[in-house]
Design a protein that fits this description.
Strand content: 5-15%
CATH class: Mainly Alpha
Helix content: 55-70%
Radius of gyration: 16 Å
CATH architecture: Orthogonal Bundle
Order of helices and strands: HHEHHEEH
Shape: globular
Number of strands: 3
Number of domains: 1
Largest sheet: 3 strands, antiparallel
CATH topology: Arc Repressor Mutant, subunit A
Strand order of the largest sheet: 1-3-2
CATH superfamily: Winged helix-like DNA-binding domain superfamily/Winged helix DNA-binding domain
Length: about 110
Amino acid sequence: MSIPTYNMDGLRLLRCICDEMRFGILEQLSQGEMTVGQIVQKIKRDQPLVSHHLKTLKECGIVSSESRGRHVVYRISSERLSALIVQIQEAGDEINDICDSTCCAK
């Protein structure tokens, strides 16, 4: 019997975005590029924590950044990844509509 192989890059991507804070950051960035300060205002979390998660997302290749004067602007690194985040949001909404509280933790 052979052991099935899996797309490890896909699993790494899912592991990287499967964090409430990181997914919240990605939801904001799916609307367009933002500075750390703008993200902090939107998700109402401390700046050092947001910066830490942005660093992780950057290391995963999901987010890229660019210096503009005194600010660093972050964006999702590709349109394909941005579209994926939107699709995950929509799928979550769809599941939420059909799922009762016994099958899914909120």
